[in-house]
Amino acid sequence: MLHFILERATCYMCACRCGIKVTVENDNVRFIQGNRNHPTNQGVLCAKGSAGIMKQNSPAKLHQPLLRKPGTARGAGEFVPISWEKALDMLTARLQNIRSTDPDKLAFFTGRDQMQALTGLWAQQFGTLNWAAHGGFCSVNMAAGGLYMMPFAFWEFGD
Ligand code: SF4
Predict the structure, then answer these.
(1) Structure-model confidence comparison of residues 26 and 3, the more confident one
(2) 142: CA distance to ligand 1 center in Å?
(3) Relative to the CA of 48, which ligand 1 atom is closest?
């Protein structure tokens, strides 16, 4: 059994980036705890941070593209796995059609990818104004509030 503790990681479950120690066994995350030596959280871990293990181990985690099962209604929740090649071919055909007719018909939303400069550039190059990332529902509002009130954007980081 390969067992080690990753001593210097940061939690990715919100923008605070608390210090964490991650116990790994045989390539599986087994346990997450706060890092007492980290200046932001000094060992404290919130419930969301503790639940970060489910981001790795959740049975609902997607491992490959899924296509709605042919003949089923949207929302029925029935999918079949497809290859990345097939998924990319299908998306390319659909996006080519949208881009050549009305690019603003593409609403492009990304999750916590930390590549928002890149995805934003991609959306601009595509030609749609309709793009956003999850930060608009989360830390960006906190940062905007902080700027109006303190004026600090991310009080957790002291900046
Ligand atoms: S506040 Fe909670 S979710 Fe956010 S980084 Fe710290 S432990 Fe993770």
Answers:
(1) 26
(2) 14
(3) 3
* pLDDT of residue 158 exceeding 60: no
**11 CA distance to ligand 1 middle (Å):** 6
The distance from CA 153 to its chain's CA centroid, rounded to whole angstroms, is 21
Ligand 1 atom nearest to 45, measured from its CA:
7
Could you give the count of Cα atoms lying within 13 Å of 144 in the half-sphere of its Cβ? Answer: 7
**Cα 13 to averaged position of ligand 1 atoms, centre (Å):** 6
**Of 45, 53, 134, 138, best ligand 1 pocket probe by most atoms within 8 Å of the beta carbon:** 45
Distance 27 CA to ligand 1 centre (A): 23
pLDDT at 14: 79
Structural domains of the chain ordered from first start: 3-57 (2.20.25.90), 66-137 (3.40.50.740)
Is residue 19 within 8 Å of 3, Cβ to Cβ?
A: no
Burial of 82 per CB tally in 10 Å (0-12, 13-18, 19+): middle
Predicted pLDDT at 27: 87
Cα 110 from chain centroid (whole Å): 7
Residue 54 has pLDDT above 70, yes or no: yes
18 with 40: CB under 8 angstroms? yes
